[in-house]
Amino acid sequence: MIGFIIGIVIVLAILGFVIVTYNDMIRLRNAVKNSFAQIDTQLQRRFDLIPNLVETVKGFAVHEKELLENVTASRSGYMNAGSNEEKLAMSNQLTSTLKSLFAVAENYPQLKADTNFLKLQDELSVTEEKVAYSRQFYNDAVTIYNNRVQMFPANLIAGMFGFKEEALFDAAEAAEEAPQVRF
């Protein structure tokens, strides 16, 4: 009889552990999804500003057609990306392209003095700060989630229920280099 009771207590303890661990992993996975959605929201704000920025620059930098096309192509690439990894890669590409655009703008004094351009540049700067913060928050959420998925004994529950590691946001390789401006 005592053995039966001990057996039931052990089974209930294991079942309780599985339930608590499973629910914790769901909570962490949802935090990762939410944090990526925050990046997506900030990037959408940035993408909404880009057509206005391109139109403003077009009037001043007519011979910078290739750069303006790259900005537009990067924006479209993000909008058409399917997975989070593709979206993050396209975001890196767009960030690099925008840096080049602002570097080129330095060579156009009239453009630098244009109030529309300055306002758009300021809005993009604020948005870039929000994107950076959102990326940091995303990486924090992914790290917590991945630790839970990988660490024993929660990794046993993760394997049983199909929880997979999430990818961290990595800065673009080109982010360490200054943009090249050519005329």
Overview of the molecule:
The protein has 183 residues and is mainly alpha-helical. The protein has a single domain (2-176), classed as Up-down Bundle (de novo design (two linked rop proteins)). It is built from 6 helices and no strands. α1 (2-60) packs antiparallel against α5. The N and C termini lie far apart (88 Å).
Task: Give a topology summary.
Blueprint: H1 2-60, H2 65-80, H3 84-105, H4 109-113, H5 115-150, H6 154-161
Helix pairs in contact: 1-2, 1-5, 1-6, 2-3
Structural class: mainly alpha
CATH architecture classification name: Up-down Bundle
Beta-strand residue fraction: under 5%
Distance between the termini: 88 Å
Average pLDDT reading: 81
Largest sheet: none
- Domain count, please report it: 1
Radius of gyration, whole Å: 24 Å
Primary descriptors:
single chain; 183 residues; mainly alpha; 6 helices; disordered C terminus
Structure, briefly:
The chain is mainly α and 183 residues long. Helix content is 80%, strand content 0%.
